[in-house]
C-alpha cells in the first residue's frame, strides 16, 4: 500500500492542520455560520486521551474508567458509556455538527457495524500521552499503540469497501487529536521520573518531537485534515483537586508554563505542513464546577466546535 510511504513535502497543498486552542471569546460572529457550508468529511477519527475517549478504556485493563454513574447521566438513556463526561464529548459533537453520525464509537467496541466503520471510529484512551512512560503508570493505550489500532482498523475497512475506497475515506476524513496533559501530570509531578532527565522546557521539546512524529506517521497513513486541540491549563483539569489542592498546584506549576508549551505547538506543527490557524490560546482558567464529571469546560469547547464552521472547507485529495 503505497500510501504508507508518502513523503512529507512542505508544500502539501491538500494537507491542512486545523489548530484550535480555545478562547473564552471564541463564540463571536456566528451570523456567518448559517451561510457557511460545512466541510464535507465522510468520516471522523479521534486519537488522544480522556478529552476524546468515547469508551476504549472499557475494553482494556486499566483503572482509568468512567463506565459508572454519575458519568453519562445526560447521555441518551442516562447510560455511562466510558466517556469522561456527563454526556457527549468533542468527537461526538463534531460528528453530529458535521452531519456524519450522532456519536463516535470506540474502535474496541465489539460488533461495530459496517456503517460505523465507514463513518469513522475513535482510538483515544483516557490517561494516554505522547510519552510512552505515561502508559506505564496508567495502563492506557499509548499513542504509538493507537496508531497500531488504526492500522488494524484500516485493514478491516479495506475488507469492507476495498482498498481504493478505504483510502479515499481516510484522505477525506477529519482526524481529531489531543494529548500532553497526562504526560506533564504523571511524569513531571505525580511520579516525577522525567524530572531526572528533563527540565520543564526540555520535556516540552521532547513531547513536541513525539507529537510531530505522531502526526507525520498519520499523514503517511493517509490523513490530510487534522484538528489539534491544545493543552488546557493544568490547574483546571478536573481530577487535580482530588489529588492536590489547586493553590499548591499553581505554586508548583504556573499556568504560564503550559501556555508557553501551547504556543510552542504552533511552530512545531507548522514545520509539518500548511496550517489554518483558527484561534490563539487564552490564559483564563476555566474552573470546573465538579470534581467528578467534566462539565463546565465543554461549554467553551462547544463554542470552539461551532467555530470550526468558519474554517475553510477542505478540498478532496
TrEMBL record:
InterPro entries: GDSL (IPR001087), GDSL_lipolytic_enzyme (IPR050592), SGNH_hydro_sf (IPR036514)
Residues spanning the membrane: 12-34
Keywords on record: Membrane, Transmembrane, Transmembrane helix
Protein name in the entry: Zinc finger protein, putative
Family the entry assigns: Belongs to the 'GDSL' lipolytic enzyme family.
GO MF, one annotated term: hydrolase activity, acting on ester bonds
Keyword Membrane: yes
Lineage: Eukaryota, Viridiplantae, Streptophyta, Embryophyta, Tracheophyta
Pfam families named in the record: Lipase_GDSL
Entry superkingdom: Eukaryota
